[in-house]
Amino acid sequence: MPYSSSNNNHNRRGSCDVSREVRAPLLPVLSKMIRSLLPSDFDALLKVINDAAQAYKGVIPNDRWKEPYMSAEELRKEIEAGVRFFGLLEGGHLLGVAGIQALKDTTLIRHAYVLPGCQGKGTGTRLLEYLLGLVETPEILVGTWADATWAIRFYQKHGFRPVSSREKDRLLRTYWNIPERQIETSVVLRTIPSLQ
Length: 196
Ligand SMILES: CC(C)(COP(=O)(O)OP(=O)(O)OC[C@H]1O[C@@H](n2cnc3c(N)ncnc32)[C@H](O)[C@@H]1OP(=O)(O)O)[C@@H](O)C(=O)NCCC(=O)NCCS
Description:
The protein is of the alpha+beta class. It has helices at residues 10-14, 16-21, 42-52, 72-80, 123-132, 149-157, 165-175, 180-184, and strands at residues 32-36, 84-90, 93-103, 106-114, 139-145, 161-162, 186-191. The longest helix has 11 residues, at 42-52.
């Protein structure tokens, strides 16, 4: 049965703390897996994004924060624009998500979010490594808020390096569809896997 955010047990049952109590090896069915997300995962995907995005509250500029951080309409548009989402699940519960968007001669990593109780435990790394394995272009870009220092550190640990401010503006205008104010308050990091 497709998981829906209307399930009130989501936080409790999907949280990393609870799932640790019932972790494999005794129950291999609860082992973690990454898979492409389906239309039936839409509500759970949106919930992970908005729960994880709470990390931005009070950190990114106030005029860039809204609640929910991403609306269903915005997420739908991202999917229509070609963002393919993957999720890491444990026992059928979505713990983290990340998207990939192939554009012209580059690939963007989009919307990487891990449930708050699960952050810092390797979920983002597993998802990112999985996505990097799908990339067919020489270059991979990721954009995030300049104030999201933890996210910048996360990408730097995986070989991404910040581009110059001028290059950031150019890349965001070329490959992203975001307002000027978001361009001002963002950074872009790049990796070229063949050079790693
Ligand atoms: C950024 C994010 C996707 C990384 O996923 P994650 O599962 O927490 O990351 P991992 O456990 O695989 O990697 C941990 C590394 O990421 C960084 N990190 C990011 N957020 C962290 C957190 N809340 N706790 C600990 N480490 C964090 C650190 O550099 C850490 O490395 P370290 O342990 O050597 O210090 C996740 O923390 C998240 O959803 N954050 C909030 C939303 C966000 O910033 N999204 C990025 C959008 S571009």
